[in-house]
Specification:
Number of strands: 10
Strand content: 35-45%
Number of helices: 3
Radius of gyration: 17 Å
Order of helices and strands: EHEEEEEHEEEEH
């Protein structure tokens, strides 16, 4: 798994992301805020996974709160807030290609320090962007 951060972000804002070809995890002050999976078969247990049809998503979750079309994909968003949905499902050619969960929660300094400790402990295995 790779890490994405910049020194000033880590030192001041506490933003750190871990990712590979199958997932993306974003932490803020030690709290997981955002997770995205795009590996076939991964997703929400007993609901739907990457590779499932749009019909299965609609059958399990109902109509989305919002729907956004782009040139490549259609994004179906679910949650309680139109401007900040907690679940987004990316659909391309009628199939789920990614599942994105987001819940903004403010962390505490001790949680951020735990992430910092992990990063510093493993700094020989981690490359930082500049």
């Amino acid at each position: 798994m790779k890490i994405e951060t910049e020194y000033y972000q880590m030192a001041y804002s506490g933003d750190v992301a871990f990712f590979d070809d199958n997932q993306y995890l974003h932490f803020h002050n030690g709290i997981l805020e955002y997770a995205s999976v795009y590996q076939k078969g991964k997703g929400i247990k007993n609901k739907f996974v990457v590779g499932d049809t749009l019909k299965k998503v609609i059958d399990k979750l109902g109509n989305p709160l919002t729907k956004m079309n782009t040139s490549d994909s259609i994004y179906y968003s679910y949650g309680n807030d139109y401007t900040d949905p907690e679940l987004t499902v990316e659909i391309r050619n009628g199939k789920v290609i990614s599942v994105q969960l987001e819940k903004i929660t403010e962390g505490f300094p001790d949680e951020n320090r735990a992430v910092q400790y992990y990063l510093n402990k493993n700094k020989n295995k981690i490359s930082f962007t500049k």
